[in-house]
Design brief:
alpha/beta, 2 domains, Rossmann fold
């Protein structure tokens, strides 16, 4: 499923984009989950709280510096999300390169061009997506690494806590998962014998635990404190 954010101050535009996306979903059998925002701050607050999107449609009016700042703030948190800019202006295009935009769509929106750009984005997202694969009840399951918040080991069971409140379970060893993921683009921190945490969901390091962006706290064992702090600082850099 593609997680998509649509941000534009005009209700007519957000409604049009949402309708076009739902039409493509039905025609191309591509599952989408859409959040609509009418203000850039509302969108960036959502992203800063830990929400992850695959694709963002963002209104940018060049005389409004706040629009560019919204894109800059998104990029500070998420380097990978694709941004398609929606604009009624042709000027100051250079500013869009600063925030690594994927495509630019003019207003009024051309339906055929919109669909082509969406399919381009879908292809790119699928090409770059990294998954964690596990087997449970004779079935193979895949979870995007960027959606995994943390792994927890309880005896022979591994619980996977993912974005959107999802929880999965399978039999395995956390040491083997840590080894499997050590070279992945998305880095995980082994904070405790029983916990392996996706660093992009960490809000802060506390004395005895890690605080996640959703408020949950994950313990950090005494013998791992220094290593966890050093690795996390390197990732931030």
């Amino acid at each position: 499923m593609m997680r998509i954010a649509v941000c534009d101050g005009e209700v007519i535009i957000t409604s049009q984009i949402e309708s076009l996306l739902l039409e493509i979903e039905k025609k191309k059998m591509i599952s989408v989950d859409i959040d609509v925002f009418f203000d850039g701050k509302e969108l960036t607050d959502k992203i800063y709280s830990g929400e992850k999107y695959d694709l963002i449609y963002l209104d940018i009016e060049m005389e409004n510096e706040r629009d560019i700042n919204t894109a800059r703030n998104i990029r500070m948190v998420d380097k990978a999300v694709l941004i398609i800019c929606i604009s009624a202006q042709d000027s100051c295009i250079r500013k869009l390169f600063e925030v690594d935009t994927f495509r630019l769509i003019d207003k009024p929106i051309d339906k055929e061009l919109f669909e082509r750009y969406f399919l381009d984005a879908h292809t790119k997202i699928n090409e770059s997506a990294a998954c964690f694969t596990y087997r449970f009840n004779k079935e193979v399951h895949n979870i995007l690494l960027e959606n995994i918040i943390y792994f927890e080991s309880q005896g022979r069971k591994i619980f996977v806590y993912s974005r959107g409140g999802r929880k999965s379970c399978f039999f395995g060893k956390l040491n083997e998962i840590e080894e499997e993921l050590k070279d992945s683009k998305i880095q995980f921190l082994r904070t405790h014998q029983s916990f392996l945490v996706n660093h992009i969901y960490i809000k802060s390091l506390l004395k005895t635990c890690i605080k996640l962006k959703d408020g949950r706290k994950i313990p950090v064992s005494e013998n791992r404190k220094k290593l966890v702090r050093e690795k996390y600082c390197r990732l931030l850099e």
